[in-house]
Design goal:
Blueprint lengths: L1 H9 L4 E4 L3 E5 L2 E5 L7 E8 L4 E2 L15 E10 L8 H12 L3 E5 L2 H7 L3
Parallel strand pairs: 6-7
Antiparallel strand pairs: 1-4, 2-3, 4-5, 4-6
This protein binds zinc ion (ZN).
Zinc ion binds next to loops.
Length: 119
């Protein structure tokens, strides 16, 4: 997780947030917090919607970051230890985000992140 967050922090224009979900003991019960199944990391990255690629890969000079088909694209990453499986709730959330146009991937390493975000 640390290496992945360090890598994301180096990418120009990429916003990264950590989504904490889980449950904490409050008195004699557990209280859930966060959005169940939501990926560990999410944010946005500069995107060229005309070529459907990251903005850094755009070679056509369509315009500035917010004009001519360039703008932020939301992404989300589920970070797993090697071999770990996603829960049914996480799989359902993945399908929801992808259907809405998010870049989504389940990753185990920085190399996975590089592939997922197209860099
Ligand atoms: Zn472009």
């Amino acid at each position: 997780m640390r290496a992945i967050r360090d890598y994301l922090a180096m990418l120009p224009g990429v916003l990264t947030f950590r989504a904490n979900t889980g449950a904490l003991p409050v008195g004699d019960r557990f209280v859930r917090f966060g959005i169940e199944g939501f990926p560990d990391l999410f944010g946005s990255m500069p995107w060229c919607w005309l070529t459907d690629r990251p903005l850094h890969a755009c070679r056509y000079g369509h315009g500035g970051v917010r004009t001519g088909g360039h703008g932020p694209r939301p992404w989300a990453l589920e970070v797993k230890r090697p071999g770990a499986k996603r829960s049914p709730t996480q799989l359902a959330m993945a399908a929801t985000l992808e259907a809405a146009g998010w870049l989504y991937a389940c990753v185990e390493s920085v190399a996975d992140v590089q592939r997922a975000l197209g860099r």
